[in-house]
Design brief:
Helix content: 25-40%
Shape: flat
CATH architecture: 3-Layer(aba) Sandwich
Radius of gyration: 12 Å
Number of strands: 5
Strand order of the largest sheet: 1-5-4
CATH superfamily: Class I glutamine amidotransferase (GATase) domain
Number of helices: 3
Largest sheet: 3 strands, mixed
CATH topology: Rossmann fold
Structural class: alpha/beta
Number of domains: 1
Amino acid sequence: MSAANKPIGAICISPAPLAKALADKRPEVTIGTDRATAEAIEAMGGQHKICSVDMIHVDGGNNIVSTPAYMLGPGIKEVAVGIEKLVNKVVELAGR
């Protein structure tokens, strides 16, 4: 997806392995506010951005959209807000 410049959506913990896989591109991702996981992302070559459960982070340079989801949210009602924003943004980016 990255090599084809297609948008990538990463939810919950999936931004962490994505940061490792794309370390050479220094991707910007979020898993929310967990300091230890954020430090691990940074150590793997990613750039962590703090977000709340209802937010997304868009790395426009790498075409990556991420949201914390269950890394922060206590239930589906809370995580659904960020996930819906992520899906809408990925669809928007795919339509360019």
